[in-house]
Amino acid sequence: MARIASLLVPLFPLAARLRSEPELAGEAVVIVEGNGNAAHVIAASRRARRETICAGMTLPQARALLPKLIARGRDAECERTSQEALLEIAERFSPRIEDAGEGVAHLDVSGMEGLFRDKKETTAEEGPADHETTLARAIIQAAGTAGLPTRVGIAASKLAARIAAELPKSPVIVPPGEESAFLAPLPLTRLLPELAIGDALGRWGIRSIGELARLPEAEVASRLGETGRALHWAARGVDSRPLTPRLPPPEFREGMDLEWPLVSLEPFLFIANAALDRLARRMEVQGFACRRLELLLKLEPDGYDSRGIDLPAPTRDVKTMLTLIRLGLEARTPGAPVAGFSFVAHPDRPRRAQLSLFGSPALSPDKLATTIARLAALIGSDRVGTPVTVDGHAPERFAIVAHDPPPPPELRRRPRRSRGLLAVRVLRPPVPVEVIMRGNELHSVQPLAVRNDSGDGSKRMKIEGSIRVASGPWSLEEGWWCEKPVDRDYWDVELSSGGVYRIYRERGEGGWYVDGMYD
């Protein structure tokens, strides 16, 4: 028999707002819908309910009872992101979940209760309900950590689990096979029947779910159709349709509507810091990091400002993302007061680090991505990256691309077998020299400048001596159609001083340069 767990966030509009503004917890807060004197209360905090403030009151009526009442408008962005956070919590306990909307989620926990056995109180008489209670408490704890006070009910049907979650004492576990008895005393309105069907059942004298369940199914279906049959199944604790799995979204969202429009940067960054922190914690639970961050600003009175930030590497560092947002807003201001915002993080797997048994630990990929992002913000993204070779013939050709090292190999690679490798140490910039020729042959090399090859000046490299062996020339011509074409002749020479060098001559200007030395 399938077991369904229902997650319910009571007073969901209020809980979503308090998740974005945790400093209001414990205060007298109401969520209102509408404008002016027509605004009415749809949810009230516990402290406000103590003052007899309840849903349905107008805001002036509520303020007459409690002048210091804090009122917040209903925030669709907060509710959407809170619903996504609730579904992500459900995904931590089961791969099959259904989004029921408005702070409700259903998940299939069949066979999952054994993974949450309470080892401290395990006895031979322990039943499945005890394991399911431990599972439900783990869900409640995870949701509370995310800032969502959640109630949990577990039963064999979604309706029974939903009603069990609505009870104040949570969690509530309906034992297998007792769903019909659990639903029987409840009023018929719990099934949310259509108006015509509800009127028909009322004329029959049906007032409770149990009375509907005792009717013959075939007779109900013949008079009320397939909708009546589905209601009869629900009354008996049987789901008329299976759990609808939810596909995970391709991105993570966080945002909120502001009570007052903001015209300065610092107050906005203070609120954005909390939103980014919630975003980073959600990605960390799922094992993701942010590769691209999009910012959507809602401007006063009617307008939007959208911008995107490409991070050099996946990261969850809030300070880095906040710094990039600051620099972007300082470079291009929105141009109008900000009335709300929304962050959209495109996730990616963070880079793995190769651990060392004997050497010093390698730099964390997350910290490296943070450093690269800050450097890109300071000096420009076109000046930070990894140098790579480009198609061409000139040895000094290169380009800067985004830093994206490959992951460490799964298996250790075997070293290549060879008779010997000859390495060239490239000199950048090339060292200018004077080459003396006798006829068409190279005779000697004399230095034109002294190159300091070390930072402290203790070692100075001089390239001079007569040429013992010369091999060349090899002509190189590239970019003759450009403003700065390359037209050279290369030689490999061995000097009397013992070094082997690669030199070339620029045909246009006639200068000689040492391009590299062989080791």
Query: What is the spatial order of strands in the main beta sheet?
Result: 15-16-19-20-21-22
- Outline type: elongated
Give the structural class: alpha+beta
- The total count of strands amounts to 22
Estimate what percentage of residues fall within beta strands. 25-35%
Cα-atom radius of gyration:
36 Å
How many helices does DSSP assign?
13
Largest sheet: 6 strands, antiparallel, barrel
The average pLDDT is 84
- The low-confidence parts are 119-126, 454-459
Helix content class? 25-40%
Task: State the distance separating the first and last CA atoms.
Answer: 74 Å
Question: Which keywords apply here?
Answer:
519 residues, alpha+beta, six-stranded antiparallel beta barrel, five-stranded mixed β-sheet, 13 helices, 22 strands, 29% strand
Task: Give your account of this protein's structure.
- This protein is 29% helix and 29% strand.
- It has helices spanning 12-20, 46-50, 59-65, 76-91, 128-145, 158-166, 179-183, 195-203, 209-213, 217-235, 265-286, 318-331, 365-379, and strands at residues 4-8, 29-33, 40-44, 70-73, 97-99, 104-108, 151-155, 172-173, 252-262, 289-299, 303-315, 338-348, 386-388, 399-401, 424-438, 441-447, 451-452, 460-461, 465-478, 486-495, 500-506, 512-518.
- The strands form 6 sheets. Strands 15-16-19-20-21-22 form a 6-stranded antiparallel barrel.
- A hairpin with a 7-residue loop joins strand 19 and strand 20.
- The protein is elongated, with a radius of gyration of 36 Å.
- Residues 119-126 and 454-459 have low confidence and may be disordered.
